[in-house]
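Consider a protein example.
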Amino acid sequence: MGGGIFAVLGLAVQITKGAAPVAFLLAGLVALLTARSYALLSKAYPSRGGTVTFVNRAFGAGLFSGGINVLLWLSYIVMLALYSQAFGSYAAGFLPRGYQSLGKHVFLTAAIVLITVVNIAAAGFSEASRPMLSAATGTACGSHRRTSSYPSAVGVGR
């Protein structure tokens, strides 16, 4: 489901009027189907591009796929803002009342800065460790041979 569950839990309970477990079960099923789709697409089109690669493969590199990719990028910014806002609000709740407003902004800003630093550091680590990880996964997975006995879904992975 993701980090949004922490940001909208109270609102979900209020809107569903006691049916929040059913709503979360349905959301979990949708997330499971989405995760399966991503796994199959990642296997079929191995790339560092992720969703951008999938959109470009499906619609070609053009104006439409470019627009979708920009919207995807903007949605990541909105998610970061939502999670940071929720974290700031929750963390500030542990402060005395007089400091909660300022604390909320401090925690919110700290969350954004921390996530940015982790992403920058992870990108550098990922580049530096690529040869070692490629060798390890190639050995562990038997190079690139297909080891599953399950049939591929609609030609994915063939």
